[in-house]
Amino acid sequence: MAGILVIDDDKTVCETLSTFIHSTGHKCVCAFRLKKGLELASTNSFDLVFLDVILPDGNGLKAIPAIKNAAGSPEVVIITGEGSMDGAELAIKSGSWDYIQKPLSVEKLHLSLMRVLQYREEKTERRPLVLKQKEIIGNSPAINRCLDLVVKAANTDANVLITGETGTGKELFARAIHENSQRNGKAFVVVDCAALPENLIESTLFGHEKGAFTNADRTREGLIKEADEGTLFLDEVGELPLPQQKAFLRVLQERRFRPVGGKKDIVSNFRLIAATNRDIKQIVNAGIFREDILFRLQSLTIQIPPLRNRKEDIWEIALHYLAKLSGKYGSGQKSYSPEFFEAITRYNWPGNVRELIHAIENTLSEAHEEPVLFPVHLPTHIRSQLARETVGSANIKPYVNEKDNDTSEPIPGLKTLIETTEKNYFQDLIKYTKGDIKEICRISGLTRSNVYARFKKYNFSKFSS
Q1: How far apart are the first and last CA of the chain?
Q2: What does pTM read for this prediction?
Q3: Per-residue pLDDT reduced to its tens digit, 110-123
Q4: Do 266 and 363 fall into the same domain?
């Protein structure tokens, strides 16, 4: 019996879908608000979510990533009476299984339901495990979906395009594909397209004959030939200049090329994996990247999520590198304070996993022989950003009285809201300053007597002066 969630503010639609789903022998739960639907998805393991687009408290399309990252990693089928081509495209790009317009057809619903459940059953039976995943750390739904694609890529010889922000670990995923494929044990050749001097790109990739140009004092084999029988990884492929893209197109089509100054073609049986942190379709539209190359690169695409979208993995990654780097620097295994854990999970990590690793390394260096890690050991730029977020906002959260079918939250009195906000502010400020009264006065702009008055009002302990 599958678990199915329906998120739609139209009670008639919910009743119709619920009756249909129960008739097929599966379990159905309905929510009339997006917020309630997200709560249900986060606390229950659903196989499928039927999701409306226009909801009283939000846009269903924007909630697709959050739903797919929820417990059970459910599939999402969009149902909407406000259909549009842009909406359909956004839904599919966001990871939805299907896009169905209202009025709903029982035939279409049944077909979509059966296909989703068949897909999930086959997916479970495949046991998509990556035997060698090296430094890919985490067990979030988002990262597990990427690992499922790594398994698929490793079982084929198709070209792969890996996208994601800087520091997300694109090369790690490329190596995982290589090491779980039949080409494991052969060369894994990395080409950093952003670092190649433009006048040497062709000779670096294709090789050259002796005397082909000034300083070509010997024949040299290119990186493409080095990757023969192995994997060629083009990192930051979006930085490859247009003139060289045309030359590389033939290599992709025929797996043959001619070295600079050479008189005959050379064959290289390589597997291609490319990666970029740029919006590849955007640079194609801008005329910077050839569309015919893009078509050949993206036989299979893996989009790696930024670390901020898989916060549940942060602590596992941190623990891994704390153990690894502690051994490297001989500083011994450290323990950590709750505040340290809270700080690294609250920070947004714009540099992603790479920034987290560097931060752990700097933290161990700062702590040196101290046995316990505190936020003060983190790099200054991280602590500064966290301080700005803490002090710069009044921590006011909007109170919404959503009268849906299950719950409603009372709106507090204004005085209560102000006092709660002020108390939370001072708790954060005390934690940040470690109770230093002078620093609390400086940041808050209050006099010492006013600060002490609030300590007394909220029953805070006395701190250092």
Answers
A1: 63
A2: 0.65
A3: 888 888 888 887 76
A4: no
